[in-house]
Design a protein that fits this description.
Radius of gyration: 13 Å
Distance between the termini: 33 Å
Largest sheet: 6 strands, antiparallel
Oligomer: single chain
Length: 110
């Protein structure tokens, strides 16, 4: 139920992809089709969440292409967890399916 509400909220708010591309989240690239629905970045750990219509595999490949090989990678409870080191920050990217969309959560901590 919560996922459905968040998805509806994200779809009705419209796409913020151009703003996201211009202002990457802690220098973490964001796919062009991202529809942001949550950003908590006033203190660490910082979190950005968005929906994408790309497949889980496409999103995984996108982040590996943009950030290099992850320091660690695992699948827990059907969610892909990718761990990177970016600009001396630990970055965890979670990718999970939400109906016809994928939810991506980016967590940055120093």
């Amino acid at each position: 139920m919560r996922s459905a509400v968040l998805l509806c909220l994200a779809l009705t708010c419209g796409s913020l992809s151009s703003a996201l591309q211009a202002n990457d989240f802690y220098q973490i690239p964001i796919p062009a089709d991202a529809r942001e629905f949550s950003r908590l970045d006033s203190k660490m750990p910082a979190v950005l969440s968005f929906f994408s219509q790309q497949t889980e595999s496409e999103l995984r490949d996108y982040y590996i292409q943009q950030l290099g090989e992850p320091a660690n990678e695992q699948t827990l409870y059907g969610r892909q967890h990718l761990y990177f080191n970016v600009n001396n920050n630990q970055v965890r990217i979670l990718i999970s399916g939400q109906n016809d969309w994928r939810q991506v959560d980016i967590m940055v901590q120093n």
